[in-house]
Amino acid sequence: MRISVAADSTDGVAERVVSELRRRGHEVVTHGALSEEERDDWAWASELAARDVREGRADQAVVCCWTGTGASIAANKVPGIRAALCVDAYTADGARKWNDANVLALSLRLTSEVVLDEILDAWLAGRPSADSADVANISHLDEI
Ligand SMILES: O=C[C@H](O)[C@H](O)[C@H](O)COP(=O)(O)O
Q1: CATH code assigned at 29
Q2: Is 74 a pocket residue for ligand 1 (Cβ < 6 Å)?
Q3: Which UniProt keywords apply (predicted)?
Q4: Which residue out of 13, 39, 42 has the highest number of ligand 1 atoms within 8 Å of its CB and is therefore the one to mutate?
């Protein structure tokens, strides 16, 4: 997959997100503090990654800030984006299965290297549920 990764800082696991995705064979585009030229504030960086997904330049995105809150809020402002702030593998699995999330938001403060690896495993293996109630919920998001 082609995955856009944004962060407002290179602290914590930000650079490990990029290296782990590349190690797993994905093509990675970087934004914010992970890019040489771009503004590194979370609202701008996260917006760019979310727009990559919205406009078809990426299949998915990972957006990071210190708490994960600002990055997820910014990504969710972009139409069609379903960003999920995930703190563990169970949440990441549920975000893909029940929410068809297309953007993974991470806290650079909270996410350890071990937990990051578990989250990425669950996120990348996850598939959206075909259950009619789940499909209806996702569909309603576009009507809100
Ligand atoms: O939701 C916001 C994020 O957690 C930011 O990473 C946090 O506000 C820190 O930003 P800064 O390093 O610019 O103070």
Answers
A1: 3.40.1400.10
A2: no
A3: Isomerase
A4: 42
